[in-house]
Design goal:
Blueprint (H helix, E strand, L loop, with lengths): L1 H5 L12 E7 L5 H15 L6 E7 L10 H9 L13 H6 L2 E4 L2 H10 L7 E3 H5 L15 H22 L18 H11 L1 H6 L1
Parallel strand pairs: 1-2, 1-3, 3-4
Helix pairs in contact: 2-3, 2-7, 3-7, 5-8
């Protein structure tokens, strides 16, 4: 992986339609389903369903997980009925995706540690759209409906920029400068191997 870091290149400069985007959070119960649903609704309203496909997954999602009730409620406020079930990040999904957008830097590092081939196409959502304030979107799990609403608004604002960034008719948006992996990344990768998380997510 060290050699791959030296070859870290900007992705998707010449992607083919449809563009496939995977949103990733921890359990695929709160943030990534909201991002998936909001962005799919946005491209549906713009008549671009044939240009962009979206899915979501979680680093440690389980078949026993359910999408948070507050996430469902918030999406209904946007006029969206969400019925997808949580799923874990997998080899099939990362091979399907042209671009992987995580909710936090930790999700990004974990995803790359599990699947090193993600290195050149994985960013946090806010990193990719160039948010100068923070690269992370805080987890609303266990918090109030108001906090979920704030989270959805934060995601929606980033998705608005994302749409324009990916619009082939508007090439003026630069791709982000890749952020270096932290010095602790290789320790994280070792711990993942030690706990067997990579095997659980790959199957």
């Amino acid at each position: 992986l060290q050699s791959e870091i030296c070859n870290y290149q900007l992705p998707i400069t010449n992607y083919q339609l449809p563009m496939r985007i995977l949103f990733v959070c921890t359990g695929n119960t709160c943030r990534s389903p909201i991002a998936e649903a909001l962005f799919r609704e946005r491209i549906r309203q713009l008549g671009k369903m044939d240009e962009i496909e979206v899915r979501s997954a979680g680093i440690i999602a389980s078949k026993n997980f359910t999408v948070a009730a507050n996430s469902i409620t918030i999406l209904s406020e946007y006029g969206i009925q969400y019925e997808q079930k949580p799923q874990g990040i997998s080899l099939e999904l990362i091979e399907w995706a042209d671009l992987v957008l995580t909710m936090t830097r930790l999700h990004k590092y974990l995803a790359i540690a599990i699947f090193p081939q993600l290195l050149n196409k994985t960013f946090t959502l806010k990193e990719f759209v160039g948010d100068p304030t923070s690269f992370d979107i805080a987890d609303p799990v266990g918090k109030s409906l108001s906090r979920y609403r704030q989270c959805a608004q934060e995601i929606d604002q980033a998705l608005n920029i994302l749409h324009h960034k990916l619009d082939k008719s508007n090439p003026s948006f630069p791709l982000p400068t890749p952020q270096p992996l932290p010095n602790t990344f290789f320790v994280l990768k070792y711990l993942i191997r030690l706990t067997g998380l990579s095997n659980k997510t790959s199957n």
